[in-house]
Specification:
- GO terms for molecular function: phosphotransferase activity, for other substituted phosphate groups.
- The protein has 207 residues and is an all-alpha fold.
- It is 80% helix and 0% strand.
- It has a single domain, classed as Four Helix Bundle (Hemerythrin (Met), subunit A), CATH 1.20.120.1760.
- The longest helix has 32 residues.
- The protein starts with a helix and ends with a helix.
């Protein structure tokens, strides 16, 4: 919901960093893997309840998430392979954060974490399944032309997910309630994406 507003704000800072990395011959795939590994450090940090350090790892991962794409565009290295590994590792990272909270306090957090992972399955699959069909029909993406795949909007997008992860770390004692609320928003996103995506694709099939 908020990505169309926040992404333009990050364009210039990411471009400046991408130029520096390009001058150092850093590749987009190296950035993707590096930020993923930094983000995955949050899993053991959360499990051992080092929430402040986990928050740093999460924020660094999210700050670096758009950097690989900016670097790819700058260096002319955009590819389906890069877009694929980027989004794939993103979903692994999201799941790892939720797992970290479940491990930190299984008695309190496990059920909420399970519900949130269930909701993530819906948002992830509806997002990626539509991207595959949209590419086959050459569906345009006017709000996110820089993306390597069709960016299907919804109530919970990247910005909302970042906010949720930050809140989880700032208020870990309230994780069950926060995770439940975010899971409900994700389920609503899945429903609207399935409905909207179905009827959008029906228009292309009918023609």
């Amino acid at each position: 919901m908020l990505d169309r507003f926040t992404m333009p704000l990050t364009h210039r800072p990411l471009l400046l960093i991408a130029r520096y990395l390009s001058s150092r011959r850093v590749t987009p795939d190296q950035v993707t893997l590096g930020t993923f590994l930094v983000g995955m450090a949050s899993l053991p940090l959360l499990a051992f309840e080092y929430y402040a350090f986990a928050l740093i790892a999460i924020v660094l991962n999210r700050l670096g998430d758009g950097l690989d794409g900016a670097l790819a565009r700058l260096s002319g290295r955009q590819s389906d392979a890069g877009g694929f590994i980027d989004i794939g590792l993103d979903f692994v990272f999201y799941a790892a954060v939720v797992l970290g909270f479940a491990l930190a306090d299984p008695e309190q957090n496990a059920l909420a974490a399970t519900v949130l992972l269930f909701a993530f399955i819906g948002t992830g699959t509806s997002f990626l399944a539509f991207a595959i069909a949209a590419k086959a029909h050459n569906v345009e993406r006017p709000n996110f032309p820089q993306k390597a795949f069709y960016y299907l909007e919804g109530l919970t997008e990247g910005t909302e997910t970042i906010i949720a992860l930050v809140l989880f770390c700032l208020f870990p004692q309230h994780f069950p309630w926060l995770a439940g609320l975010f899971a409900a928003a994700c389920i609503m996103t899945t429903a609207t994406r399935l409905w909207g995506g179905y009827w959008t694709l029906r228009q292309y099939n009918d023609h």
